[in-house]
Every structure is written in C-alpha cells, then in structure tokens.
Design goal:
By secondary structure, the chain is α+β, with helices and mostly antiparallel strands. It has a domain at about 1-45: N-terminal domain of TfIIb (Single Sheet), CATH 2.20.25. The protein is built from one helix and three strands; from the N terminus they run βββα. Strand 1 and strand 2 form a beta hairpin. The structure holds zinc ion. Zinc ion (ZN) binds near residues 7 and 36. InterPro entries: Znf_Ogr/Delta. This is Transcriptional regulator.
Length: about 80
C-alpha cells in the first residue's frame, strides 16, 4: 500500500492503529520529502467482500459430521 502526501511525494507509515469496535484502521504517516516535513494520519476501512472467505464457522461442524461414520466403520 502506498500513501502519498498532499505534496505528491511518498510517505512512510510509522504506525498502524486498528480501532476497536470498528473495521477502521489509522495509519500514522510522514512525508519523505525533507522540504515538506508533513506528518499526518490517514485511514483505511473495510468496505465489502468481492469474494467470500472460505473459512467459515460451519466448516468444523462439517468435518465433525464426516468423522463420525468413519469411526463407526472402523469398529466393525
Ligand atoms: Zn509532503
């Protein structure tokens, strides 16, 4: 991720603060142009998914259900 200063120069991200109770994150930045010297806070936030995660809470339940018939078959 590249954050630009208002002067157009690249900035360095010094610290990332994930805000509690929010998907927002603050980026503490400073300009790389020594003549500018601007320090600022920029923000990043989650907007929406473009592809849903394959990791869901339903997955452990599916695994548990498929293990049970195998355990019964081994008992024969
Ligand atoms: Zn600048």
């Amino acid at each position: 991720m590249r954050i630009l200063c208002q002067c157009g120069a690249a900035s360095i991200i010094h610290r990332v603060n994930a805000l509690s109770n929010s998907t927002d994150t603050e980026l503490m930045c400073s300009c790389t142009d020594p003549e500018c010297g601007h320090s600022f806070i920029s923000g990043v936030s989650y907007k929406h998914a473009t592809k849903p995660s394959r990791l869901t809470l339903d997955e452990p339940v599916k695994i548990g259900a498929s293990v049970l018939p195998v355990a019964v078959a081994r008992g024969r």
